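ok so for the tutorial part 2 we go from a plain amino acid sequence to predicted structure tokens. step 1 is just haveing the sequence, like this:
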Amino acid sequence: MSVFTHLVAELGRLLEPVLAESATAAAIVLFTVLVRLALHPLSRAAFRGATPVAGCLPLLLQLPVFFLMYQAFTSGNELLSHRLFAAPLGSRWTDALGEGGLFGAQGLVFLALFGAIAAVAAWSAVRGRRAAAAAAAASAAAPKKPAKKGGSAAGAGAGVRAGAAGLPELSAEQQEAMRKLGGVLPLLSFGTLVTAAVVPLAAGLYLLTTTAWTVAERVWLEHRKARAAARAANAAGAAAGAAAGAATTDRPAGGAVRSSL
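step 2 — the prediction. this is what the tokens look like for a chain of 261 residues:
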């Protein structure tokens, strides 16, 4: 724990000329960003689904960091005297309510923290529901059986797209269960708001930073995936167009040879 305290204290001293007494709070945010940068390769592997445990590793590896953060601001050390504006970093929401009430100087700091966490959670919930709805719609649109020989081109194309996407065949009951689960799971992100209300302010800052990073990182990874898919589709379309053009060019030549004969 002393190593963690020393690191945050040193980061706070570096930021103190610019941020004054809120420098330690900024140091906590910077420390959280450094942790998430170190875990970014695991997050990318989890997004790609490289291994079954990859999705759990970023969360599990953050638990010791959060525990150290919690312990550092609940035990006596030099960091407890630092503040974020009017609120001590070691204080809880109940302490702020006792000092000046809900709209007191400390209470307003916690309200701003809760508002930021709620905004991130709402953003995560909306994106989660959209992703679940899109996945359920894509699964429902996938053909139930492989296209038969001589079937329509549309059916064959749908089969190719479903196979390329790796979509499982789901029954109507499974699709309904997926839809309901997709509506409930995103709401779990609001659990961070409850946690922030009972932990010290410093730990709440860590929670806000890491959850905002998680949502932004997911958006960025999805954007990169969409761009890669678009480039692949464009390359495939260009190759198909070139092949069709070559076939069209060769056909008249063959006809001319037959006419001369």
